[in-house]
Specification:
Blueprint lengths: L1 H43 L1
Amino acid sequence: MVGGEFLSIDSTALLIAGTQTSAIWLAPVVISAIGIGLVLVRKRV
């Protein structure tokens, strides 16, 4: 029982940590893509 509970807590913590880690590098990528998109749209107009 205890091992199963710890496993679920650990897997949840790992999932949260993985999400935060990917968000750290994903945010600048998304912001850069939006910035490049705005520049391209403004140059066309």
